[in-house]
Records
---
Amino acid sequence: MSIIEVDHLTKYYGKARGIIDVSFEVEEGEIFGFIGPNGAGKSTTIRLFLSLIYPTSGNAKIFGKDCIKYGPEIRQEIGYLPSEVFYYEGMKVLDLLKYSASFYKKDCTKRLFELADLMELDLKRRIDDLSYGNKKKVGIVQGLLHSPKLIILDEPTAGLDPLMQQNFFNLIKEENQAGATVFFSSHILGEVQRLCNRVAIIKEGQVIKLQDIKTLQKDNYKKIRILADDLDQKTFDLPGVTNLSREDGALSFFYKGDINQITQAISKLQLQDVVIEEPTLEEIFIHYYE
Amino acid sequence: MNIFLHELKSYLKSVGIWSLANFLIILVYFSAFNTIALEAVQLEEMLSSFPQELLIAFGMNDMNFSSVLGFFGVVFLFCQICLAIQASNYGFSLVSIEERELTADFLLPKPISRGKILTAKLLAAFLALTITNLAVWASSFLVINLNRDGRTYDVQTLVLILSTIVIFQLFFLSAGVVISLLMRRVRSVIPLSMALAFGMYILNVFGTMVGEDKLEIISPFRHFDPNTILANGAYDLPLVMISVAVIVVAIPASYILYGKRNITAAV
């Protein structure tokens, strides 16, 4: 079953572009990455899911129900962590979390304390006095305390130290294994790569690629680095070779195509060293943005 | 209910301050009543040499300094200004505060409709205003009875004057809400509420100076002018209906506007 179905969703802010004709589906139980640079339309898409804003055309369904018409109902099962942290002036952490919990039908008290403990959150402090990273933790706990079926994360890791990021990722993985579907928006590819099953790349308001993360890495490109005697750049002037560059006497490039062709070309050389590896998502990503 | 209580809690401090302010205005001004009432004849003579426009600006035209309610009318005008600023403040910040402080990103993704959010917020603001309203009632009766020094006054007329507060507050509350929702972003509440409250006050003053009913008929300061109520012993009903009409239009309009509003991310 599809948890999220996005159907030709378009949003303009007056004349300014938000997103244009975005369609994709997120299946139950997957961790879906949504990547793109700032201003590409990631937050716009998420705000449409939560009916914080309304589409210009098209629609989105969550749990099979229109996310505007059945907004309050479906939001019972959505946990959202916004990219910007928020607070009510003068409120203590515990008060805010209890306030957050009071919106849900189920009793969230136990989970609230578990999560606060896991994120090492001091419940007695005033939110105003917390550092950015600690406010972010409050955001994480309030987004997860009702054990939602769909977790929507909008650039969640900014401001968290590496150790906390690790905790956070483990938490998300646990939630996922317990059955939650995760929609993960980010511009940091490393974390998407670590966590996600599938990924959509959004550029200037349009989804330009939708792929299994393994396919994205494996089937397309190889990253090759060669160190050899009498290395001539022209040797690799072959179809499928891109981003050819020379650095410290070594040649490196991306290759897409029949792997035998490239190994034959390499075998003619007197090699000192060769590295053939998967490009990182980062490198693939830059390729899509060229 | 949770939003209502949360909102109400956030009003407590402000309600305390505004109630105290109103009490002090009534206390300080009305304490002077006895002294002034004794010299009322000389004072009225002196004031009659002042330009009429100046007297109108401070609500001191056709004022009777020797009568309890005549004097109270001027004091009440100062309370009205306070009440207008308070209600406008609550109105302008009612929903805009969530966008300004990014708490909309917390509240709106919760499983609750915007209509219910607005209802809870309006009720909490109205209750907060009502507490201040009651404080004005209590202060008025208390201070008048402490200072009237045996002079009598018509309780019914005082009740008539004080009863205007509820509609007066609702006017500024609902106008504030609907104006804030017509704006793309409310950056700062105080200048707006000052402009609305004093704008309406000045409209009424100019109207009285010129002596014609034009733009000033939209001002609640005109609809609920204590001197007029004193003079007639009754409300000017058609004018009161204008205030009521503004409220009746502004509140449903707020629901429609809020329901359609795009809550964009922080800039």
Note: The interface with chain A takes residues 2, 6, 10, 101-106, 108-113, 116, 260, 262-266 of chain B (CB under 8 Å).
---
Amino acid sequence: MSFPWAQEYKPQAPLMQWLDERLPLPRLVYNAVGAGYPVPRNLNYMWNFGVLAGFCLALQIVTGVILAMHYAANAGVAFDSVEHIMRDVNWGWMLRYAHANGASAFFVVVYLHIFRGFFYSSYKAPREMIWLLGVLIFLLMMATAFMGYVLPWGQMSFWGAKVITGLFGAIPLVGEPIQQWLLGGFAPDNAALNRFFSLHFLLPFVIAGVVILHIWALHIPGSSNPTGVEVKQESDTVPFHPYYTAKDGFGLGVFLIGYCALLFFAPNMLGHPDNYIPANPLSTPAHIVPEWYFWPFYAILRAFTSDFFFIPAKLMGVLAMFSAILVWFFLPWLDRSPVRSGHYRPMFRKFFWVLVIDTLILGYCGGAPAEEPYVMISQVAAIYYFAHFLIILPIVSAIERPAPLPFSITEAVLGKDENAVLAPPAVPLSA
Amino acid sequence: MSDHAGAEAVLPEGAAGSGEGVRRRDFINIAAVSAAGVGGVVTLIPLISQMAPSADVLAASSTEIDISAIQPGQAIKAVFRKQPVFVRNLTPKEIAEADAVDISTLRDPQTLTERTKEGHENWLITMGVCTHLGCVPLGAGEGEVKGEFGGYFCPCHGSSYDTAARIRKGPAPKNLEVPEYEFTSDTIVKIG
């Protein structure tokens, strides 16, 4: 782990020396996010979002554990207990809004983190494991967010649960028993609400565990960087602390401004009014949509309106929706180009931005009612989405002529300077 | 491997029983790991099974409905397994409309007779759960839209059902499900 020029942890205080010999936890922190972790000197602000995602996870766990002190997971009283939090519990309204909008903030940050990975090909060797763990975290996040949305037991909670568990009903033969097993009944009810609460409480800690693996895997090769050129010499890096603790701290400040603006001035903007109506199994809201962060995938689910060969439309939609994320697992092997950064890949770069626009279009259609022209637009956009990963990426990586790469990160930052840059790696410049 | 060879060398000839490199300890290893493995798997059964519908949920899985007050052309929404069930008293005109359809043109071909009980052809009893994504279709309540085929209309994604609750238009793959039921008398229906 890490580079040979990493600074070594040298505790000064006797207490810290005593601790270091018995439980070297401060040493672990120093080497992971302290001065002992050398990081490429040229990271831009797109590299802030990992730390921000970690912040969001902590925020959700803290607010979530507090909400669980006041919430009751019983179909008879769940809705009222949420209103009790909103009206009666001291600062309850703020904590609940912080948690609900915290989920949105978490997804904003994670989507930027993922698309950063797409643009800079962060998934390429030797960082495949980081990427695979990241996709796993995203899947766990989706499950957690879905189950959390069910807990207030409003109309959208109930019908969201019904539609999403109904997806499993599309599986041939075993679908209906699986659906009943997941729900513990024939429709969402007390059994489903209780288990969703239990799992909604558990999964964030599972995510935290996978995040630790994600960071561990990251610290083996170290962070990638905007040039995609690997670190060659000490002058290519700076210590994580204070350089990136400061940069991440600044990014956190900017993030918090946006988050607080949402939390305090438009806390219901991303929610649905229907969820302030208690769940009613006998009446469906006219327009069921999931939360915004599921819209692109919901659009793909609904894009299949007729049977596809022998596969029924409903099953096909379900398969496509899950495949839209599962295809990310294969990215390291679909994109064969040896060049990582989109900055040096003129063709790939264009298709990257088309994918961004395509995903935004899917998102828009997923939030719109299921009628024309949105259905047709989602069909075209869904086809393009899969074509990007399965056809365009492999072809582009085979035929593209990349731009010349800089010799080193230092050269990319300081320009070609014979004396400063092309010094042999064995002689560290700052020494 | 070296451990194995060492143990072999120490044992007197034939002491392990069969020879051929198979020792009593190998048997104990396999037996212990197998027993633990099977035991571990069996332990999963209650852990998985507890999530299935519990006895009280299953006990509520049949329901009796008094249909004496439903006039021809009217329908009611009842609750069966926490889901809506539509009980509809068809008018002769609606029955004629349903019978007039050529079933070979249907997505889920069924006749009205197949979807009702003999002697009670005017009683159309179906789940009020759209076969697309599980919304409750309109058309059973007073004044609700019945869609262009006069049966039920799902507002979520626009599936239209006819007077035999068969899917005619829209994304739903199947007709509204007919639950298991029986007439316990002329005015009482037991569903489930």
Note: The two ends of chain A are 21 Å apart (CA to CA).
---
Amino acid sequence: MAQHTSGTEKLSGQIMPYMITELRGPMSHLTPLNWQSLEEIRFRVNQPCAVRLNEGSFWLGANGITRNKQAGLIISPNMLSRLVSLFSQSSLYALEDELRQGYITLAGGHRLGLVGQGVMVGGSLKTVKNISGLNLRLARAVEGAADFLIPYLVLADASPAQTLLISPPGGGKTTVLRDIVRKLSNAEPPFLKGYDVGLADERSEISGAVNGLPQLDVGGRTDTFCGCKKSESMMLLIRSMSPQVLATDEIGRAEDVYALQEALNTGIKVIATAHGAGLAELLARPVLGELIEKGFFQRLIIFKRIGGKSVLTAVYDEKCRNIMEAKANA
Amino acid sequence: MLKLLGAVLVVFACGSLGRLVEMGLNARKQELRAFRYAISALETEIAYGLNPLPQALLRASEEAGGGVGKLLGQTSAALSVSTGENAAQIWQHKLQKNITKLPLASEDFALLHKFGMGLGESDGEDQLRRLKLLNLELKAREDKAAEMAAQMGKIWQSLGWGTGIILALLWL
């Protein structure tokens, strides 16, 4: 319990400085339990401040969390503008690359998504102005987050399988991947030895890196390359750090495939994640579908989030046979 | 003898008053120049350094010095501790608190207020455009202040000494 309290104190200590004065009072009513299950805070212009906990969606009222929308604290355009200033340290000009990506990574690995009016130059997004909505997604290292799928991740020789973790957005893929990376790196059961892990963390979301330094525990044998396109950072990691396992988040672009195949050719194990809800949907995707059909991944683990917990939906092998079903039948 | 001593004192007092007014005019010119240096430093920080505003303001404050430099330094420090206020709010508060300590004319404060509005709240291009515009306005204001200091400074000094001498002669 003491550990949970210090964890929630640390989390509130990271989040509260970003809050404008009008929100500090209501936020101070959040209980340690609220902080413990807090997943997202959404700020939308002229709408009440929305809060997502493990248990579901709520509003932030003057006295803390409420189910009553009418009691929710309305975010005015001026409030949102000041929130953006605090999140960006009044330095929006220094975050143009991040704005183009649609998010800012904050200290502690928390991610702030932004929407507004895009400014296009030469057919591509230059920046975002008139920001109208923010989504603060909290990152936290959850030890044991991957325990529910670990039996499917380990091959007969106790080595990790080439794995693709699949779940819909908000399904907890990043938290699960972070836990797997830490286990592999620190030789935690069921892995019998520690692996040198190369972590291609394009959005600094897995490691929560700030100025290149991981803020969340990704293990003692992990080399993190962040803030760079994952296809490039995977190649750099392969060339420079000789990892035994390569881990990355949300693959799907054509250039990712080349790096993944390069890893395969050099005998590196790959653990990656992708958005999706089922195998048929993944097979229909142009790049990812091809990789799966070629049998690149020894395990395709599909899960979703129910009541704040990740639950396995299906597990497939390289020939797309549902081994979870087979195991259950056996 | 005492009358003579009093007359000398009156001459020096009036002369010093004239000199004080001249120094005030020069101080305004120097403060405006310091503010312009700060703006230029901030432009560099934003355009090339892409440094966060607290750091950029600190550099600008070191570059500028003077009362404006102090204000920038205080704003940078307040931004770093995160009080729940953004840069524009902090700047306005600091400005209100220190307005009487700066050797500036009332019309100059409009420029200082303008500097704070929207500080760090838009992309680099927009921030630079605003700073460049402000720099131009400051340059014009500084040139005017320098001209005024040169003309009026001499007048005030002469007036001070002259008034002192006339008063002394009348008294004697």
Note: Chain B touches chain A through 24 residues (CB under 8 Å).
---
Amino acid sequence: MQFVDEFRRPDLITKAADEIRRLADPARHYRFMEVCGGHTHAIYRFGLKDLLPSNIELVHGPGCPVCVLPMGRIDDGLSIAERGDVIFTAFGDMMRVPGTHGSPLEYKARGTDIRIVYSPADALRMAQANPDKHVMFFAIGFETTAPSTALTLMRAKKENVRNFSVFSNHVTIIPAIRAILDSPDMRIDAFIGPGHVSTVIGCRPYGWIANNESKPIVVTGFEPLDLLQSVVMLLRQLNANERRVENQYKRVVPWEGNRAALKAMAEVFELRPYFEWRGLGFISQSALRLREDYADWDTEKRFLVPGVRVTDPKAAQCGEVLKGVLKPAQCKLFGRECTPEHPVGALMVSSEGSCAAYYSYEHRKASVLSHLPAA
Amino acid sequence: MCLAIPGMIVEVLGENSDLALVDVLGVRRKVDLGLLLDEHPTAGDWVLIHVGFAMSKISEADAKDQLRLLTELGEQQAAIEEVQGYGVDFLVGENGRGG
Ligand code: SF4
């Protein structure tokens, strides 16, 4: 089993799409939010919207870590990068995200030492190879990524690597879902739950969504059949008037999550009292900072961080798009001032941002499924 | 960046077995097993990899189970229609096999 092709089988995709049409009540309009940016990307990439009946609307959620990061944090990180003795490292996704005075890539072109890493462990190795420099890792990501940062920091401490620090922008998914549900302009019938975050936190933390908010949620994988099966499962719950947390992605997600990963996170991180999210504003206890034991490896404690706050350009409607209130193409700047080549907002930069995904795939419609009949 | 990809462990490496050589789409890469040590991953196991770390073991049994469910999706419906054709639709319960 290769775990990829099997979940793109056209015959099964047709079956699942038929089942969805059979289950969906034509008199109803369904709004399902996919929380995770990886899902948003997969939905556009595989043209899944074309397979769904028009009364099932997929609303894109806030689960793109690059997109929810306020510009001030990027400015803060880059201000430290500009010190001569610092190597700024980040994932490739961060490189084109605009800061007030340019993106990390533009800083790099102007001579700042900025390097792409694929893993936080690579940043630590870079510090060990460059003892006369300070290597700072600009960390972003939800609970999927935070354990890898945590384990890297535990190793830095164990091996006493003094010229390495982490600028933590890690965020947590549950408070973001809560903020969406508390938002007055939001109406969601059910959730397509994040798959990879759940490999770490498991399925239990979503219980309140079913029990208190009375919304079904199905933790879902990223292949076309995963997403379609999850829509089937959500429709079945709604039709049977049930509200449960279900795990569609059993082959990867254990119900209890990954204990070792949670332990590493708990060892290194603590919750910030509050953190600003682009588009959603300040959300309490929604982000992670390093514990006091790790102060020596905390960029924010080792350096003077300016704490910049910038408001996004007025015409940019990233906030509304992030909350799912507007579709990407409804933003006034979409495809005009704001394109993947010249992004105004982060949603146009990250491949998981809904604006970039919509721009790259929606008008081309060149999907692997294009030979299938449209819904 | 939340991208995660499946790969198959070719060989477990490192003093503490916390590294592995993993085949990802035909390319061999070193992957950190530090977050998965409780699961005792061994050669031949499939793992989900994110930012250089194995996050989760992939269960072949669950994958097969899922594909079986998907294969049955339409058939269950065909069975219901078949039974309804007999004019005994009152017998059809929630699972389509009689209530
Ligand atoms: S088109 Fe650009 S400015 Fe408008 S919401 Fe998308 S990323 Fe933001």
Note: The pocket of iron/sulfur cluster is lined by residues A 316-318, 321, 328, 331, 333-334, 338, 344-345, 347-348, 355 (CB under 6 Å).
